[in-house]
Structures are given as structure tokens and as C-alpha cells.
Amino acid sequence: MRVGAERGIALLVVLWGCTLAAITLGALASSAKVEGIQARGQYLQTRGFYAAEAGIEQAVFRLRAEQASQRWAVDGRTYRLREGEAIVSVTVTDEDGKLNLNKAAPEQLGALLQAVGVDPEQVPRLRDAMVRWGNGGERFSDSLLAKGGFTSLEELRRVPGLPGDVVDRLEPALTLWSTSGPNLAHAPPVVVVAMTGAGREASEAYVADVRAMDPEHGGLPTVPGNVGSAQSFVPSSGTVTIVSTATLGDTQAVRIQATVALQNAPGDPRAYRVLRWVQVAAEEMPGDGHSASASVPAS
Questions:
Q1: In angstroms, rounded to a whole number, what is the distance separating the alpha carbons of residues 238 and 178?
Q2: CA-to-CA distance for 134 and 103, rounded, in angstroms?
Q3: Phi-psi region at 294: left, alpha or beta (left = phi > 0; alpha = psi -120 to 50)
Q4: Long-range Cβ pairs for the range 129-133 (8 Å, 24+)
Q5: pLDDT tens digits, one per residue of 232-259
Q6: Greater pLDDT, 132 or 266
């Protein structure tokens, strides 16, 4: 009887050991699977980054092309190319089509705030907050503020009382690198609304017409609203924002947004100089990528 009991206990110990071994192996297999998925995601993310970077390089090459027929337009139209397994969509927008944050009149900033959908009652308060920050009128313990003027577009997120969602809407329409303008031939719809007083629908139709024209031979469409607003057809002011989005499969995507100055100085071997570089991962794609942004100061 005692021998049978001992055998039963031994069998129970063996069964428990097998169960623990199975659990351990299952945990290891599950961990290996998760790590494999993560490694695959990192691999695709890296491939996507280099594909998006290739889109930036291709855009610079096209912008510097000597023949007009090979040169890409700078009005925001989309160009598509394939880099290995990735499909890359590239848009180029000239900075002269945007409102210069440090040079715009308060009335222009107010019109832009209203154009992006800010409540008209809130426009004066937000406009004045932006103007005070840019002029250094608010005194905080901040050296950038003491100098006056915005040094980066990311600095907008530090303006007291200016909501982040408003900054998200303003940012694509603002620049720090234009010397004149905005040139409505290169402007996004909200800038057309702000500068002309035209409705959103008419402004979007105007921008669509610009992007549909032949950049080499086509004439510019009539500006809606205020006919005195400036528009001119020039290939590029030399400072552009390139947005390159690389997609692998259905969901994996990487977007790089680079503001660059094209180099034309004799003896300068660089094709361009980076002024601002923003990389956005797939999970951040619905936003503007400000959390992953990096501004490069001019040198």
C-alpha cells in the first residue's frame, strides 16, 4: 500500500513538472513571437524612413533640374514614386506661399486664426497672445523671449492660452523663412481665405485649379475674393517644405517633413541646407508630428 502511495506521489510530481515545463515553454514562445513582431515593425520602420528620405532627395533633385519639363512644381501637388517595396508620396510647397510668423501684421494673423476655424470672439485674444510673445512683450525667464521674435514654429506651443489644436491648424500656413508674400500661387487654402476674404469652398477650388495647371505652360487661375491679392508664377523662391510619406503594406508608414533651402552659392557642394526636420511614425500619422519634431538652426 505504501509503495503504491509513493508511486502516486512520484507520478504527481512528474505531472506537475511537465505542466510547469509546458507553461515555461509557452511563455518563451509567446515572448519570442512578440519580439519577432517588434523586430519586424522596427525593420519596416527603418525601411520606411530610408524610403521617405529618398523621396526628399528625389524632390531636391527635381527642383534643381535644368529642364522645366523635369522640374517639380512647388504648389503642393502630389508626386508618387516607388522605392523598393515602399510607395512614396511627395509634396513640395514653397515657403513664399505662407504667412511669415515674424513679419505678418496683427490683422493678417487674426484673419488666419479665423480662417482655420477659431471662434471670432476668441480671435483677438489669441492674436494678441501671439503678437506679445513674438515681440517679447510678455516677460518670462526665457532668453528666447527676451530677444523677441519666434525662433521656431514649435515655439507657438509655448504661447500662453494658445490651444494645441489651434497650433495644429495654424502651423501648415506659417513660415519663418519667406522674405515676401504670401504668394497665392503657392498658398494653401487657409492662407487664400485669410488674404482674400473668399470663402473656404472658393479658396479650395482656386488651389485645386493651380495644382491642376501645367506648371511649364499653364496660366494662373483668377484669385477669388480680393483681386488685389498677390500671385506670381515663379519656379521656386529657393526655400521649400517637402513632405515625403513612405508606405509599406496597408498600415506601416513614415512621414518626413523637411523645410530646406536650396543651395545656389558657387563652390557650395551641398544641394540643400536643412532648416527644419520633422519625422512622424505610423501611429502618429493623423497629427502633424510636433512631438517628434526637430528644428535645425540656420548656419
A1: 10
A2: 10
A3: beta
A4: 129/159, 129/160, 129/161, 129/162, 130/101, 130/156, 130/159, 130/162, 131/106, 133/158, 133/159, 133/160
A5: 667 788 899 999 999 987 666 889 999 9
A6: 132
Q: 111 in a domain, yes or no? A: no
Whole-angstrom CA distances from 143 to 51, 139, 148, 153 are: 38, 10, 9, 17
Alpha-carbon distance 96 to 290, whole Å?
Answer: 22
Q: Could you tell me if residue 80 is inside a domain?
A: yes
For residue 53, being part of any structural domain is answered with yes
Is there a domain that residue 172 lies in? Answer: no
Alpha-carbon gap, residue 54 to 69, rounded angstroms: 21
Q: Could you give the percent of the chain with pLDDT greater than 90? A: 45
User: Dihedral sign, CA of 95, 100, 102, 103?
Assistant: positive
Domain count, the chain: 1
Instruction: Please give the residue range of the domain that contains residue 242.
Output: 1-98+178-183+234-299
* Farthest-apart Cα atoms in the chain, separation: 108
**Rounded CA separation 213/289 (Å):** 30
For residue 217, is pLDDT > 80? no
Q: What is the pLDDT of residues 116-168, one digit of tens each?
A: 999 999 999 999 999 988 775 443 333 333 345 888 999 999 999 999 999 99
List CB contacts of 193: < 8 A, sequence separation 6 or more: 111, 115, 199, 200, 203
**Has residue 114 got a pLDDT over 90?**
yes
Question: What residues does 87 pair with on adjacent strands?
Answer: 82, 247
* Residue 4 confidence class, pLDDT cut points 50, 70, 90: low
